[in-house]
Q: What sequence folds into this?
């Protein structure tokens, strides 16, 4: 598991080599939360090991997570999620690479909350789709910047198959929330 985390970290580091260092921020403790809500059951999972880079010079942003790092409220969900739905042995990570469209709205020198739009490629279950989502950046101070967003994903868009016998227990649309607490990136 530690080796996979190192691989993920270095893969993201390589992804970030095009980013300018001056206003680059980083976290490896971002949070991804999802909920599959149906009339029968709610299934939710949290991953507190999301790695993310953001560059406030040009708006480039990258995020990655290990699928197996999700923890579930419902104990039996972990196995079903990894083996049946996400097939994490075949698709061990999910990632996003994109840009903040309206980066000029954000002033990291000034405390405040900024409503922005992020666009880019989201890869889940080996399928990559271009998405655009609203997000918020909060500048607490120059050393503490948070990022948040929430969006829905249709599992069929990412070729996630649900066995007929449990199709009433798994939502066709899953809500995802991401939370990041960024710190200045130092080489």
A:
């Amino acid at each position: 598991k530690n080796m996979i985390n190192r691989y993920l970290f270095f893969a993201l580091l390589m992804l970030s080599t095009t980013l300018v260092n001056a206003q680059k921020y980083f976290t490896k403790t971002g949070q991804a939360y999802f909920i599959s809500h149906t009339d029968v059951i709610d299934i939710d999972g949290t991953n507190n090991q999301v790695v993310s880079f953001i560059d406030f010079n040009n708006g480039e942003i990258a995020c990655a997570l290990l699928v197996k790092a999700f923890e579930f409220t419902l104990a039996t969900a972990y196995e079903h999620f990894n083996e049946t739905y996400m097939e994490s042995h075949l698709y061990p990570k999910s990632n996003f690479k994109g840009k903040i469209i309206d980066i000029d709205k954000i002033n990291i020198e000034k405390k405040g909350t900024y409503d922005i739009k992020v666009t880019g490629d989201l890869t889940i279950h080996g399928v990559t789709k271009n998405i655009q989502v609203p997000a918020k950046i909060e500048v607490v101070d120059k050393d503490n910047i948070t990022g948040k967003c929430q969006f829905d994903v249709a599992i069929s868009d990412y070729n996630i198959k649900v066995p007929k016998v449990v199709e009433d227990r798994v939502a066709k649309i899953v809500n995802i929330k991401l939370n990041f607490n960024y710190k200045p990136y130092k080489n």
